[in-house]
Amino acid sequence: MAAGYLEILRARHAARLLAGTLVGRLPSATAAIAIVLFVRSQGGSYTLAGALAAVYGVANAVGQPLLGRLVDLRGQPRVQLPAAVAAALAMAVFALTGTDPLPLAYVSVAASGLFTPPLEGGLRALWPSVLRREDQVHTAYAMDAVAQEVMFAVGPLLVTLCTSLWSERAALLVINALGVLGALTVVLSPPSRAWRSAPREAHWLGALRSPGLLVLLGAFLFVGIALGSITVAAVPYADDHGGDVVYGWLMAAVGIGALVGGVAYGARRWVGVPERRLRVLVAFLAVCYLPLMLMPGAVAMVGLTALAGVFLAPVLACAFVIIDRHAPRGTVTEAFSWLVTTFTVGHSLGTAVAGPVVEAGGAQWGFAVPGAAGAVALVVLLATGRVLAVPVGSGVVAASSENDPNRAAEPRFSSGDRA
Asked: pLDDT of 233-247, one tens digit each?
């Protein structure tokens, strides 16, 4: 298992790109908790803190595909680094001025979210140029999904560490400075500087003109709803079984489960078309959400939440492969960014839906939401199987300039036999 991942990390530039992307994404991964802690330190209410965090999230969801399209058109360094600097400066304005005047706080937070660079989509666009074998690229997608879980676990700890050592204001400034450093590490690398998107057909829909991509985004909206609803349903359960400590363990268990599942998934070389495998993985994901409704004791519940997370990273890794197969030529960064946006919107909808459900029926019905959302995601994939079965290019490796400044054959893998 370790050999496959070590092979990826030993590839030239791979470790640098992965580490730089993870560090560069720290501001977006920690924005919600950092904003809430800072607003509370300024004497603001939880309502204000939540509203500002929501504004950041919405702006981020809007900005990712727009900036992703610019990356496809202009290249990574010309977009990623200026966007990272703009996002950091906007958050610095918020950190230095606080919540007074309030309009400035909203504008600066929104600008920071809007200009957050699409490093996640950019990294996935780079993998085929760094790793020349198809199986290595698919392993890298799995490793990418695993690394996200580590980042979302370490990021909040880093915020609280900065807060305890200095202040909430310092945490905002430090995290966003690290974000610029991470983006700089990526865009100065030879693969990022050399990468060029394939020639694209001018179309206002961009990546969204792919029916297969639309199907995938529709399914992942409900996967995001499932994950978001767990964060709300776990609150009343934790209140009855030990409070904040139990809640923290439940949330950590989801990440640990995804980490284990992603590592195991990426260690195996899979055969067969990824679209069919995605349906199986989503089915397992939905089924593993159902035991949460049993609501056993705290220790057993932590085990069930870990089980609920096991198939999350494999589902994401498989989706990355499918996006690469279905994204129209010249839109690969934008297509990956749309997945980020859809998942983020779904997560937010999940928290919004689970709240009233918990109020009406308690934690048990709240835990029914992720199972139901997972089932709907599976239905979407099953009902649109014919659409997903026809990837862009019909399984032919396209000859274009993407990922290759010398205009060689595009090292993008779209095999229908192996994934």
From this structure: 888 898 888 876 788
